[in-house]
Amino acid sequence: MKLRTSISKNKFFLFIIKITNNKLIYFLILLNFINFSCNKNYKTEINNNKQIFHYNQPAGLYSLDPAFARDQAHIWVVQQLFNTLVSFDDSLNLLPSLAKSWEISHDGCRYIFHLRDNVFFHNDKCFENETRKLIADDVVYSLQRLADEKTASPGRWVMSPISTNNNNLSVKAINDSTVVIYLKKPFTSFLSILAMPYCSIIPREAIQMYGESFSHHPIGTGPFVFKYWKKDVKLLLAKNENYFEFDSLGNKLPYLDGVSISFIKDKQVAFMDFLLGDFDFLSGIDPSFKDILFTDNGELKPEFKNKYIFQKSIFLNTEYLGFLISDDTPFNNKELRKAISLGIDRISMMKYLRNNLGYPALYGFIPPILNPLDSSNKYLNYDPHYAKQLLIASGYMDMPNKPKITLLTNDTYIDIAEYIQNQLSKIGLDISIELMPPATLRDLMFKGQAQFFRGSWIADYPDAENYFAIFFSNNIPPKGPNYTHFKNNTFDELYLSLLKTSNADKYEIIKQMNKILIEEMPVVPLYYDVSIRLLQPYVKGLNTNPMNNLNLKYTKIVN
Fold first, then answer.
1. In the listed set 207, 223, 239, which residue is the last one of a domain according to the structure?
2. What gap in Å lies between CA 62 and CA 439, rounded to an integer?
3. What's the pTM value of the predicted model, to 2 decimals?
4. I need a surface site. Which of 158, 175, 179, 262 has the fewest CB within 10 A?
5. CA 103 → CA 2, 84, 90, 296, 472, distances in Å?
6. Tens digit of each residue's pLDDT (9 = 90 or more) over 110-127
7. Across the chain, how many H-helices and E-strands are there?
8. Which CATH number does the domain housing residue 133 bear?
Protein backbone atom coordinates (compact mmCIF):
# COMPACT_ATOMS: atom_id res chain seq x y z
CA MET A 1 0.00 0.00 0.00
CA LYS A 2 2.86 2.38 0.78
CA LEU A 3 4.33 1.69 -2.64
CA ARG A 4 1.08 2.64 -4.37
CA THR A 5 0.80 5.82 -2.32
CA SER A 6 4.35 6.77 -3.27
CA ILE A 7 3.69 6.17 -6.95
CA SER A 8 0.48 8.19 -6.82
CA LYS A 9 2.40 11.14 -5.41
CA ASN A 10 4.98 10.78 -8.14
CA LYS A 11 2.25 10.85 -10.77
CA PHE A 12 1.01 14.08 -9.26
CA PHE A 13 4.47 15.58 -9.58
CA LEU A 14 4.65 14.36 -13.18
CA PHE A 15 1.40 16.14 -13.88
CA ILE A 16 2.87 19.34 -12.47
CA ILE A 17 5.69 19.05 -15.02
CA LYS A 18 3.25 19.67 -17.82
CA ILE A 19 2.50 23.19 -16.57
CA THR A 20 6.02 24.28 -15.71
CA ASN A 21 8.08 26.42 -18.04
CA ASN A 22 11.38 24.62 -17.65
CA LYS A 23 10.25 21.09 -18.36
CA LEU A 24 13.65 19.49 -18.69
CA ILE A 25 14.99 20.58 -15.29
CA TYR A 26 11.87 19.38 -13.47
CA PHE A 27 11.88 16.20 -15.51
CA LEU A 28 15.45 15.33 -14.55
CA ILE A 29 14.79 16.03 -10.88
CA LEU A 30 11.76 13.80 -11.03
CA LEU A 31 13.63 10.94 -12.69
CA ASN A 32 16.00 10.75 -9.76
CA PHE A 33 13.10 11.05 -7.35
CA ILE A 34 11.19 8.10 -8.81
CA ASN A 35 14.10 5.68 -9.23
CA PHE A 36 13.60 4.10 -5.82
CA SER A 37 9.90 3.53 -6.40
CA CYS A 38 10.46 2.01 -9.85
CA ASN A 39 13.08 -0.41 -8.60
CA LYS A 40 10.92 -1.38 -5.67
CA ASN A 41 7.96 -2.11 -7.94
CA TYR A 42 10.09 -4.26 -10.27
CA LYS A 43 11.70 -6.28 -7.47
CA THR A 44 8.33 -7.02 -5.93
CA GLU A 45 7.24 -8.67 -9.17
CA ILE A 46 10.45 -10.68 -9.54
CA ASN A 47 10.24 -11.89 -5.95
CA ASN A 48 6.85 -13.35 -6.77
CA ASN A 49 8.66 -15.52 -9.35
CA LYS A 50 6.37 -14.30 -12.13
CA GLN A 51 7.61 -12.64 -15.28
CA ILE A 52 4.70 -10.55 -16.54
CA PHE A 53 5.27 -8.17 -19.43
CA HIS A 54 3.23 -4.96 -19.15
CA TYR A 55 2.41 -2.58 -21.97
CA ASN A 56 -0.21 0.00 -22.83
CA GLN A 57 -2.41 0.07 -25.92
CA PRO A 58 -4.05 3.52 -26.17
CA ALA A 59 -5.95 2.72 -29.37
CA GLY A 60 -8.04 0.04 -27.65
CA LEU A 61 -9.30 -3.25 -29.07
CA TYR A 62 -12.65 -4.41 -30.39
CA SER A 63 -11.87 -8.00 -31.40
CA LEU A 64 -9.32 -10.76 -30.75
CA ASP A 65 -10.38 -12.64 -33.89
CA PRO A 66 -7.43 -12.69 -36.34
CA ALA A 67 -9.83 -12.21 -39.25
CA PHE A 68 -10.24 -8.63 -37.99
CA ALA A 69 -6.60 -7.82 -37.23
CA ARG A 70 -6.38 -4.87 -39.59
CA ASP A 71 -4.27 -2.48 -37.50
CA GLN A 72 -1.20 -2.70 -35.33
CA ALA A 73 -3.04 -2.70 -32.01
CA HIS A 74 -4.94 -5.85 -32.98
CA ILE A 75 -2.02 -7.44 -34.82
CA TRP A 76 0.19 -7.28 -31.74
CA VAL A 77 -2.30 -9.24 -29.63
CA VAL A 78 -3.18 -11.71 -32.39
CA GLN A 79 0.50 -12.53 -32.85
CA GLN A 80 0.67 -13.66 -29.21
CA LEU A 81 -2.42 -15.89 -29.48
CA PHE A 82 -2.17 -17.44 -32.94
CA ASN A 83 0.25 -18.81 -35.51
CA THR A 84 0.32 -18.79 -39.30
CA LEU A 85 1.75 -21.34 -41.72
CA VAL A 86 4.90 -19.26 -42.15
CA SER A 87 6.32 -16.24 -40.33
CA PHE A 88 8.96 -13.50 -40.59
CA ASP A 89 12.14 -13.21 -38.58
CA ASP A 90 13.55 -9.83 -37.47
CA SER A 91 15.20 -9.38 -40.86
CA LEU A 92 11.90 -10.17 -42.63
CA ASN A 93 13.10 -13.50 -43.94
CA LEU A 94 10.36 -16.12 -44.23
CA LEU A 95 10.57 -18.95 -41.71
CA PRO A 96 8.57 -22.14 -41.08
CA SER A 97 5.91 -21.83 -38.39
CA LEU A 98 2.94 -24.20 -38.38
CA ALA A 99 4.27 -25.55 -41.66
CA LYS A 100 7.65 -27.20 -41.18
CA SER A 101 8.32 -27.19 -44.94
CA TRP A 102 6.73 -26.52 -48.32
CA GLU A 103 7.16 -27.00 -52.06
CA ILE A 104 6.12 -24.77 -54.95
CA SER A 105 5.30 -26.19 -58.39
CA HIS A 106 7.31 -25.14 -61.43
CA ASP A 107 4.44 -23.04 -62.75
CA GLY A 108 4.14 -21.21 -59.41
CA CYS A 109 0.46 -22.07 -58.99
CA ARG A 110 0.55 -24.95 -56.50
CA TYR A 111 1.87 -24.78 -52.94
CA ILE A 112 2.21 -27.92 -50.82
CA PHE A 113 2.63 -27.42 -47.06
CA HIS A 114 3.76 -30.07 -44.60
CA LEU A 115 2.53 -29.34 -41.07
CA ARG A 116 4.28 -29.95 -37.77
CA ASP A 117 2.93 -32.88 -35.80
CA ASN A 118 3.46 -31.33 -32.34
CA VAL A 119 1.13 -28.32 -32.43
CA PHE A 120 -1.90 -28.23 -30.13
CA PHE A 121 -4.66 -25.67 -29.71
CA HIS A 122 -5.10 -23.93 -26.38
CA ASN A 123 -7.02 -25.88 -23.77
CA ASP A 124 -10.71 -25.05 -23.91
CA LYS A 125 -14.12 -26.57 -23.28
CA CYS A 126 -14.87 -26.49 -27.02
CA PHE A 127 -12.67 -29.62 -27.22
CA GLU A 128 -13.87 -32.82 -25.62
CA ASN A 129 -10.42 -33.64 -24.30
CA GLU A 130 -9.42 -30.08 -23.31
CA THR A 131 -7.21 -29.66 -26.38
CA ARG A 132 -6.65 -31.05 -29.86
CA LYS A 133 -3.76 -31.41 -32.28
CA LEU A 134 -3.72 -29.04 -35.24
CA ILE A 135 -4.41 -30.82 -38.55
CA ALA A 136 -4.64 -29.89 -42.22
CA ASP A 137 -8.44 -29.46 -42.06
CA ASP A 138 -7.87 -26.54 -39.68
CA VAL A 139 -5.87 -24.74 -42.36
CA VAL A 140 -8.60 -25.35 -44.93
CA TYR A 141 -11.30 -24.14 -42.54
CA SER A 142 -9.41 -21.01 -41.46
CA LEU A 143 -8.65 -19.80 -44.97
CA GLN A 144 -12.17 -20.60 -46.22
CA ARG A 145 -13.62 -18.68 -43.28
CA LEU A 146 -11.38 -15.67 -44.01
CA ALA A 147 -12.57 -15.61 -47.65
CA ASP A 148 -16.25 -16.09 -46.78
CA GLU A 149 -18.34 -12.93 -47.29
CA LYS A 150 -20.38 -13.85 -44.20
CA THR A 151 -17.30 -13.46 -42.02
CA ALA A 152 -17.06 -9.84 -43.25
CA SER A 153 -13.33 -9.75 -42.61
CA PRO A 154 -11.47 -6.63 -43.79
CA GLY A 155 -8.71 -9.08 -44.74
CA ARG A 156 -10.83 -11.09 -47.17
CA TRP A 157 -8.98 -9.48 -50.08
CA VAL A 158 -5.72 -11.29 -49.21
CA MET A 159 -7.28 -14.58 -50.32
CA SER A 160 -7.90 -13.26 -53.86
CA PRO A 161 -4.81 -14.95 -55.39
CA ILE A 162 -6.23 -18.40 -54.53
CA SER A 163 -8.24 -20.22 -57.17
CA THR A 164 -11.92 -20.86 -56.42
CA ASN A 165 -14.44 -23.58 -57.24
CA ASN A 166 -18.15 -22.90 -56.60
CA ASN A 167 -17.18 -19.97 -54.37
CA ASN A 168 -14.86 -22.18 -52.30
CA LEU A 169 -11.13 -21.70 -52.18
CA SER A 170 -9.01 -24.36 -53.85
CA VAL A 171 -7.38 -25.37 -50.57
CA LYS A 172 -7.30 -29.12 -49.91
CA ALA A 173 -6.22 -31.37 -47.06
CA ILE A 174 -4.44 -34.36 -48.58
CA ASN A 175 -4.08 -35.94 -45.13
CA ASP A 176 -3.83 -34.65 -41.56
CA SER A 177 -0.38 -33.18 -42.15
CA THR A 178 -0.47 -32.00 -45.79
CA VAL A 179 -2.27 -29.02 -47.33
CA VAL A 180 -2.31 -28.01 -51.00
CA ILE A 181 -3.22 -24.50 -52.15
CA TYR A 182 -3.88 -23.73 -55.84
CA LEU A 183 -3.46 -20.18 -57.17
CA LYS A 184 -5.23 -18.56 -60.12
CA LYS A 185 -1.89 -17.44 -61.51
CA PRO A 186 1.68 -17.17 -60.21
CA PHE A 187 2.05 -14.75 -57.32
CA THR A 188 5.61 -14.33 -56.11
CA SER A 189 4.64 -12.91 -52.70
CA PHE A 190 2.03 -15.53 -51.81
CA LEU A 191 4.08 -16.94 -48.92
CA SER A 192 4.31 -13.43 -47.46
CA ILE A 193 0.52 -13.18 -47.66
CA LEU A 194 0.22 -16.36 -45.58
CA ALA A 195 2.41 -14.80 -42.88
CA MET A 196 -0.17 -12.06 -42.30
CA PRO A 197 -2.14 -12.31 -39.01
CA TYR A 198 -5.35 -12.49 -41.03
CA CYS A 199 -4.21 -15.98 -42.08
CA SER A 200 -3.87 -17.32 -38.54
CA ILE A 201 -5.13 -20.87 -38.05
CA ILE A 202 -8.12 -21.41 -35.76
CA PRO A 203 -10.20 -24.47 -34.78
CA ARG A 204 -13.66 -25.03 -36.24
CA GLU A 205 -14.98 -26.16 -32.83
CA ALA A 206 -14.31 -22.75 -31.29
CA ILE A 207 -16.39 -20.95 -33.93
CA GLN A 208 -19.15 -23.54 -33.62
CA MET A 209 -19.32 -23.10 -29.85
CA TYR A 210 -18.75 -19.35 -29.49
CA GLY A 211 -19.96 -17.93 -32.81
CA GLU A 212 -19.46 -14.17 -32.88
CA SER A 213 -18.27 -14.35 -29.27
CA PHE A 214 -15.06 -15.95 -30.56
CA SER A 215 -13.80 -12.38 -30.91
CA HIS A 216 -13.85 -12.22 -27.10
CA HIS A 217 -12.87 -15.83 -26.48
CA PRO A 218 -10.01 -16.61 -28.88
CA ILE A 219 -8.54 -20.12 -29.22
CA GLY A 220 -5.28 -20.47 -31.11
CA THR A 221 -1.92 -22.22 -31.02
CA GLY A 222 0.23 -19.20 -30.08
CA PRO A 223 2.77 -18.77 -27.26
CA PHE A 224 0.16 -17.20 -24.96
CA VAL A 225 -3.43 -18.09 -24.10
CA PHE A 226 -6.36 -15.79 -23.44
CA LYS A 227 -7.32 -15.35 -19.77
CA TYR A 228 -9.30 -12.14 -19.18
CA TRP A 229 -10.50 -9.06 -21.03
CA LYS A 230 -12.40 -6.09 -19.73
CA LYS A 231 -12.79 -3.70 -22.63
CA ASP A 232 -10.80 -0.45 -22.31
CA VAL A 233 -9.44 -1.60 -18.94
CA LYS A 234 -7.27 -4.74 -19.03
CA LEU A 235 -6.38 -7.75 -21.16
CA LEU A 236 -4.46 -10.66 -19.61
CA LEU A 237 -2.65 -13.46 -21.45
CA ALA A 238 -0.92 -16.42 -19.82
CA LYS A 239 1.95 -18.61 -20.94
CA ASN A 240 0.98 -21.50 -23.21
CA GLU A 241 2.55 -24.46 -21.41
CA ASN A 242 2.05 -26.64 -24.50
CA TYR A 243 3.66 -24.30 -27.01
CA PHE A 244 5.59 -26.12 -29.73
CA GLU A 245 8.64 -23.89 -30.24
CA PHE A 246 12.03 -23.99 -28.49
CA ASP A 247 15.00 -21.64 -28.54
CA SER A 248 18.38 -22.54 -30.07
CA LEU A 249 19.51 -24.10 -26.76
CA GLY A 250 16.46 -26.33 -26.48
CA ASN A 251 14.64 -24.18 -23.89
CA LYS A 252 10.87 -24.11 -24.17
CA LEU A 253 9.26 -20.90 -25.36
CA PRO A 254 7.91 -18.47 -24.30
CA TYR A 255 10.02 -17.34 -21.35
CA LEU A 256 7.41 -14.96 -19.92
CA ASP A 257 4.66 -16.18 -17.60
CA GLY A 258 2.16 -13.75 -19.03
CA VAL A 259 1.31 -10.46 -20.70
CA SER A 260 -0.74 -7.64 -19.16
CA ILE A 261 -2.16 -5.03 -21.52
CA SER A 262 -3.67 -1.76 -20.31
CA PHE A 263 -5.80 0.66 -22.32
CA ILE A 264 -4.94 4.12 -21.03
CA LYS A 265 -5.99 6.58 -23.71
CA ASP A 266 -4.26 9.59 -22.16
CA LYS A 267 -0.76 9.25 -23.56
CA GLN A 268 0.67 11.61 -20.99
CA VAL A 269 -0.60 9.40 -18.18
CA ALA A 270 0.73 6.31 -19.98
CA PHE A 271 4.09 8.02 -20.36
CA MET A 272 4.14 8.73 -16.64
CA ASP A 273 3.38 5.09 -15.92
CA PHE A 274 6.30 4.03 -18.09
CA LEU A 275 8.64 6.35 -16.20
CA LEU A 276 7.39 4.86 -12.95
CA GLY A 277 8.11 1.31 -14.15
CA ASP A 278 4.47 0.27 -14.48
CA PHE A 279 5.01 -0.46 -18.18
CA ASP A 280 7.95 -2.39 -19.59
CA PHE A 281 8.14 -0.65 -22.92
CA LEU A 282 6.84 2.39 -24.73
CA SER A 283 6.17 2.29 -28.47
CA GLY A 284 6.09 5.59 -30.29
CA ILE A 285 6.57 8.92 -28.56
CA ASP A 286 3.81 11.48 -28.17
CA PRO A 287 4.87 14.82 -29.70
CA SER A 288 4.54 16.54 -26.32
CA PHE A 289 7.49 14.49 -24.99
CA LYS A 290 9.80 14.43 -27.99
CA ASP A 291 11.81 17.52 -27.00
CA ILE A 292 12.32 16.16 -23.50
CA LEU A 293 13.70 12.83 -24.65
CA PHE A 294 15.27 13.40 -28.06
CA THR A 295 17.79 15.62 -29.75
CA ASP A 296 16.92 17.56 -32.90
CA ASN A 297 18.40 14.68 -34.90
CA GLY A 298 16.13 12.07 -33.33
CA GLU A 299 18.62 10.50 -30.93
CA LEU A 300 18.00 9.80 -27.26
CA LYS A 301 19.53 12.53 -25.13
CA PRO A 302 22.67 11.51 -23.19
CA GLU A 303 21.03 11.84 -19.79
CA PHE A 304 18.59 9.02 -20.64
CA LYS A 305 20.92 6.55 -22.35
CA ASN A 306 21.74 4.72 -19.12
CA LYS A 307 18.13 4.67 -17.96
CA TYR A 308 16.41 3.07 -20.94
CA ILE A 309 17.10 0.85 -23.92
CA PHE A 310 16.43 2.89 -27.06
CA GLN A 311 15.39 1.12 -30.28
CA LYS A 312 14.96 2.98 -33.56
CA SER A 313 14.33 1.09 -36.78
CA ILE A 314 13.14 1.63 -40.33
CA PHE A 315 9.39 1.13 -40.24
CA LEU A 316 7.43 0.12 -43.34
CA ASN A 317 4.76 2.69 -42.60
CA THR A 318 3.83 5.69 -44.73
CA GLU A 319 1.85 8.51 -43.17
CA TYR A 320 -0.32 10.27 -45.73
CA LEU A 321 -3.35 12.43 -46.51
CA GLY A 322 -6.07 10.60 -48.41
CA PHE A 323 -8.78 11.96 -50.69
CA LEU A 324 -12.11 10.32 -51.48
CA ILE A 325 -12.17 10.59 -55.27
CA SER A 326 -15.80 10.64 -56.40
CA ASP A 327 -18.17 12.93 -58.29
CA ASP A 328 -19.75 14.30 -55.11
CA THR A 329 -16.51 15.46 -53.47
CA PRO A 330 -14.24 18.40 -54.40
CA PHE A 331 -11.32 15.97 -54.67
CA ASN A 332 -12.46 14.57 -58.00
CA ASN A 333 -10.08 17.26 -59.22
CA LYS A 334 -6.43 16.41 -59.85
CA GLU A 335 -5.23 20.03 -59.72
CA LEU A 336 -6.69 20.53 -56.24
CA ARG A 337 -5.01 17.36 -54.97
CA LYS A 338 -1.67 18.40 -56.45
CA ALA A 339 -1.97 21.92 -55.00
CA ILE A 340 -2.38 20.47 -51.52
CA SER A 341 0.70 18.29 -52.00
CA LEU A 342 2.88 21.14 -53.29
CA GLY A 343 1.70 23.42 -50.47
CA ILE A 344 3.25 21.26 -47.70
CA ASP A 345 6.88 21.61 -46.68
CA ARG A 346 7.61 18.04 -45.56
CA ILE A 347 11.26 18.66 -44.68
CA SER A 348 10.44 21.44 -42.19
CA MET A 349 7.52 19.42 -40.85
CA MET A 350 9.81 16.52 -39.92
CA LYS A 351 12.50 18.78 -38.51
CA TYR A 352 10.31 20.87 -36.23
CA LEU A 353 7.41 18.55 -35.41
CA ARG A 354 9.12 15.15 -35.32
CA ASN A 355 12.76 15.93 -34.44
CA ASN A 356 13.61 14.11 -37.67
CA LEU A 357 12.17 10.87 -36.28
CA GLY A 358 11.20 9.76 -39.74
CA TYR A 359 11.92 10.88 -43.29
CA PRO A 360 9.99 13.33 -45.48
CA ALA A 361 8.07 11.46 -48.18
CA LEU A 362 9.76 12.85 -51.28
CA TYR A 363 9.89 9.65 -53.33
CA GLY A 364 6.26 8.58 -53.51
CA PHE A 365 3.96 6.48 -51.41
CA ILE A 366 6.34 3.52 -51.09
CA PRO A 367 9.24 3.83 -48.63
CA PRO A 368 12.62 4.09 -50.40
CA ILE A 369 13.73 0.69 -49.06
CA LEU A 370 11.13 -0.90 -51.39
CA ASN A 371 11.11 1.73 -54.11
CA PRO A 372 13.59 2.39 -56.95
CA LEU A 373 14.25 6.13 -56.68
CA ASP A 374 12.82 8.36 -59.39
CA SER A 375 13.73 12.00 -59.97
CA SER A 376 10.36 12.85 -61.55
CA ASN A 377 8.53 13.31 -58.25
CA LYS A 378 7.94 17.04 -58.78
CA TYR A 379 4.59 17.19 -56.98
CA LEU A 380 6.17 16.01 -53.73
CA ASN A 381 8.55 18.97 -53.45
CA TYR A 382 7.51 22.13 -51.64
CA ASP A 383 6.51 24.77 -54.19
CA PRO A 384 3.91 27.21 -52.80
CA HIS A 385 4.00 29.40 -55.94
CA TYR A 386 3.10 26.51 -58.22
CA ALA A 387 0.58 25.31 -55.62
CA LYS A 388 -1.26 28.63 -55.88
CA GLN A 389 -1.35 28.34 -59.67
CA LEU A 390 -2.79 24.83 -59.48
CA LEU A 391 -5.35 25.91 -56.89
CA ILE A 392 -6.56 28.64 -59.25
CA ALA A 393 -6.56 26.21 -62.20
CA SER A 394 -8.64 23.73 -60.20
CA GLY A 395 -11.57 26.17 -60.16
CA TYR A 396 -12.26 25.33 -56.52
CA MET A 397 -11.77 28.91 -55.32
CA ASP A 398 -14.30 30.23 -57.86
CA MET A 399 -17.08 27.83 -56.91
CA PRO A 400 -20.07 29.90 -55.68
CA ASN A 401 -20.91 27.42 -52.94
CA LYS A 402 -17.60 25.63 -52.63
CA PRO A 403 -17.78 22.71 -50.19
CA LYS A 404 -15.93 23.06 -46.94
CA ILE A 405 -12.74 21.01 -46.67
CA THR A 406 -12.29 19.22 -43.34
CA LEU A 407 -9.27 17.11 -42.46
CA LEU A 408 -10.22 14.09 -40.33
CA THR A 409 -7.60 12.81 -37.90
CA ASN A 410 -7.05 11.80 -34.27
CA ASP A 411 -5.46 13.69 -31.41
CA THR A 412 -2.07 12.01 -31.85
CA TYR A 413 -1.61 13.90 -35.10
CA ILE A 414 -3.13 17.24 -34.11
CA ASP A 415 0.24 18.99 -34.48
CA ILE A 416 0.65 17.62 -38.01
CA ALA A 417 -2.92 18.61 -38.89
CA GLU A 418 -2.46 22.15 -37.59
CA TYR A 419 0.83 22.46 -39.46
CA ILE A 420 -0.89 21.41 -42.70
CA GLN A 421 -3.75 23.80 -41.99
CA ASN A 422 -1.27 26.67 -41.59
CA GLN A 423 0.73 25.68 -44.69
CA LEU A 424 -2.34 25.49 -46.92
CA SER A 425 -3.63 28.83 -45.68
CA LYS A 426 -0.48 30.38 -47.21
CA ILE A 427 -1.58 29.26 -50.68
CA GLY A 428 -5.11 30.54 -50.04
CA LEU A 429 -6.82 27.29 -49.06
CA ASP A 430 -8.69 27.28 -45.75
CA ILE A 431 -9.35 23.90 -44.16
CA SER A 432 -10.80 22.87 -40.83
CA ILE A 433 -9.79 19.95 -38.60
CA GLU A 434 -12.03 17.37 -37.00
CA LEU A 435 -10.67 15.03 -34.33
CA MET A 436 -12.12 11.59 -33.76
CA PRO A 437 -11.06 8.22 -32.28
CA PRO A 438 -8.92 6.08 -34.62
CA ALA A 439 -11.57 3.34 -34.78
CA THR A 440 -14.23 5.86 -35.84
CA LEU A 441 -12.02 7.23 -38.60
CA ARG A 442 -11.19 3.75 -39.87
CA ASP A 443 -14.90 2.95 -40.02
CA LEU A 444 -15.64 6.12 -42.02
CA MET A 445 -12.80 5.32 -44.43
CA PHE A 446 -14.12 1.80 -44.88
CA LYS A 447 -17.65 3.09 -45.56
CA GLY A 448 -16.46 5.71 -48.06
CA GLN A 449 -17.57 8.57 -45.80
CA ALA A 450 -14.16 10.17 -45.15
CA GLN A 451 -13.50 12.75 -47.86
CA PHE A 452 -10.16 14.07 -46.59
CA PHE A 453 -8.29 12.10 -43.95
CA ARG A 454 -4.90 11.41 -42.43
CA GLY A 455 -4.02 7.77 -42.81
CA SER A 456 -1.23 5.30 -42.20
CA TRP A 457 -0.34 2.32 -44.34
CA ILE A 458 1.76 -0.23 -42.49
CA ALA A 459 3.00 -2.97 -44.78
CA ASP A 460 1.23 -6.30 -44.34
CA TYR A 461 4.29 -7.87 -45.92
CA PRO A 462 7.56 -6.34 -47.16
CA ASP A 463 6.89 -5.82 -50.84
CA ALA A 464 6.01 -2.79 -52.98
CA GLU A 465 2.89 -4.50 -54.31
CA ASN A 466 1.37 -4.39 -50.84
CA TYR A 467 1.48 -0.58 -50.94
CA PHE A 468 0.02 -0.52 -54.44
CA ALA A 469 -2.86 -2.76 -53.31
CA ILE A 470 -4.66 0.21 -51.75
CA PHE A 471 -4.98 1.84 -55.20
CA PHE A 472 -6.16 -1.23 -57.13
CA SER A 473 -9.74 -0.57 -58.25
CA ASN A 474 -10.92 -4.09 -57.32
CA ASN A 475 -9.93 -3.34 -53.72
CA ILE A 476 -12.51 -0.62 -53.11
CA PRO A 477 -14.26 -1.51 -49.80
CA PRO A 478 -15.72 -3.89 -48.83
CA LYS A 479 -13.48 -5.92 -51.14
CA GLY A 480 -10.24 -4.33 -49.95
CA PRO A 481 -8.41 -1.27 -48.57
CA ASN A 482 -8.76 1.21 -51.48
CA TYR A 483 -10.19 3.92 -49.23
CA THR A 484 -9.68 6.69 -51.83
CA HIS A 485 -11.77 4.83 -54.46
CA PHE A 486 -8.97 5.55 -56.95
CA LYS A 487 -9.50 4.03 -60.42
CA ASN A 488 -6.95 3.95 -63.22
CA ASN A 489 -6.97 1.25 -65.89
CA THR A 490 -3.26 1.50 -66.68
CA PHE A 491 -2.38 1.27 -63.00
CA ASP A 492 -4.63 -1.79 -62.61
CA GLU A 493 -2.96 -3.56 -65.52
CA LEU A 494 0.49 -2.85 -64.11
CA TYR A 495 -0.59 -4.05 -60.68
CA LEU A 496 -1.78 -7.40 -62.04
CA SER A 497 1.47 -7.70 -63.98
CA LEU A 498 3.49 -6.93 -60.85
CA LEU A 499 1.84 -9.76 -58.90
CA LYS A 500 3.24 -12.41 -61.19
CA THR A 501 6.64 -10.82 -61.89
CA SER A 502 9.77 -12.10 -60.18
CA ASN A 503 11.65 -9.78 -57.84
CA ALA A 504 14.50 -9.20 -60.30
CA ASP A 505 12.11 -7.79 -62.93
CA LYS A 506 9.80 -5.74 -60.70
CA TYR A 507 11.63 -2.43 -60.59
CA GLU A 508 10.61 -1.04 -63.97
CA ILE A 509 6.94 -1.80 -63.24
CA ILE A 510 7.23 -0.20 -59.80
CA LYS A 511 8.66 2.98 -61.36
CA GLN A 512 5.75 3.21 -63.81
CA MET A 513 3.15 2.69 -61.07
CA ASN A 514 4.87 5.17 -58.79
CA LYS A 515 4.84 7.76 -61.57
CA ILE A 516 1.09 7.32 -62.08
CA LEU A 517 0.39 7.83 -58.37
CA ILE A 518 2.52 10.98 -58.26
CA GLU A 519 0.78 12.36 -61.36
CA GLU A 520 -2.73 11.49 -60.16
CA MET A 521 -2.09 12.18 -56.46
CA PRO A 522 -4.88 10.06 -54.86
CA VAL A 523 -2.94 10.50 -51.62
CA VAL A 524 -0.37 13.01 -50.39
CA PRO A 525 2.54 11.09 -48.84
CA LEU A 526 3.76 12.98 -45.78
CA TYR A 527 6.59 10.95 -44.26
CA TYR A 528 8.14 7.52 -43.98
CA ASP A 529 7.97 6.51 -40.36
CA VAL A 530 10.51 4.94 -38.04
CA SER A 531 9.62 2.71 -35.12
CA ILE A 532 10.65 4.16 -31.78
CA ARG A 533 10.74 2.10 -28.61
CA LEU A 534 11.94 2.73 -25.09
CA LEU A 535 12.47 -0.40 -22.98
CA GLN A 536 13.09 -0.69 -19.29
CA PRO A 537 16.71 -1.83 -18.73
CA TYR A 538 15.62 -5.21 -17.38
CA VAL A 539 13.76 -6.19 -20.58
CA LYS A 540 15.82 -8.52 -22.77
CA GLY A 541 15.16 -10.30 -26.05
CA LEU A 542 12.56 -7.89 -27.38
CA ASN A 543 13.77 -6.95 -30.85
CA THR A 544 12.18 -4.78 -33.50
CA ASN A 545 11.92 -5.09 -37.28
CA PRO A 546 10.77 -2.94 -40.22
CA MET A 547 7.15 -4.06 -39.70
CA ASN A 548 7.28 -3.15 -35.99
CA ASN A 549 5.97 -6.53 -34.90
CA LEU A 550 5.76 -7.37 -31.20
CA ASN A 551 7.41 -10.76 -30.76
CA LEU A 552 7.20 -11.60 -27.06
CA LYS A 553 8.04 -15.29 -27.19
CA TYR A 554 11.78 -14.54 -26.81
CA THR A 555 11.32 -11.74 -24.27
CA LYS A 556 12.69 -12.03 -20.72
CA ILE A 557 12.60 -9.87 -17.62
CA VAL A 558 16.09 -10.09 -16.14
CA ASN A 559 17.20 -8.87 -12.71
1. 207
2. 9
3. 0.84
4. 175
5. 61, 17, 23, 49, 29
6. 999 999 999 999 999 999
7. 16, 21
8. 3.90.76.10
